[in-house]
Task: structure prediction
Amino acid sequence: MRDAQLAVETGVDGLDVVIGTSSFLREHSHGKDMAYIEKTAVEVIEYVKSKGLEVRFSSEDSFRSDLVDLLSLYRAVDKVGVHRVGIADTVGCASPRQVYDLVRTLRGVVSCDIETHFHDDTGCAIANAYCALEAGATHIDTSVLGIGERNGITPLGGLMARMIVTSPDYVKSKYKLHKLKELEDLVAEAVEINTPFNNPITGFCAFTHKAGIHAKAILNNPSTYEILNPADFGLTRYVHFASRLTGWNAVKTRVGQLGLEMTDDQVKECTAKIKALADVRPIAIDDADSIIRTFHLGLHEQNKVQPPAVVEN
Result:
């Protein structure tokens, strides 16, 4: 209670009350039993509300806590008017099905908002967050690039990617999606890390296509191999043609971008040269462009200098 009083005295708008409820945390962290936790939580919430402030209560390590204990605790705090309750997958152990079941059950017990917090130790933070929304959660904790303890928590960008697929109009109207890359770059620079190459939406490879069969289809219709539209985020796609995996359709597109003309057979021959060099060493765009220009120049020279015709008597 003393901590709550000190917090209120600072002039805050609300308080976030958190305590571990699993046997692990009750035994090895704070040493309190569930009866004490429930009694103290109710007292603190009533005190904070008496000061006209917003108050949120969350259990920690919710998914390793006893369900009967949890529901009893949440009923008690909901009864005294807590504004929001939270559940936390503190060690990242929960599966999407477990999340859905717990949130759905909790939704039937409390009338207030439900917040969720998911760590990514087992790679389920995004899926768990989305399942929580489907089950009736009203708030999801996220962080830029998923930065947090250990493997972090639900990444903002990853959750946006998941949400825009199923609710595109809502997400586009509610969020300034074109600011995402700028925000992630800012945070990455501030904490001195690199944005992962496979990061949802903003990773270097997010809208890059390399394999020949992919490139051909993407050039015809991007929806063939993209569920997200890079333009929605102020980004562009890139069809990689400087690679041993490149297909001739990608090279054909590059030929056109360079303002050159070749027949399909000529493009295929040029593509073989690019792939041959890429088999020897990694090549850059400039390397591939040089091969294309040199090959095209050779074609031009062949057409320019024709051998003399042989006339038989």
Remarks:
- The CA atoms of residues 66 and 134 lie 23 Å apart.
- Residues 208-303 form one domain.
- The mean pLDDT is 92.
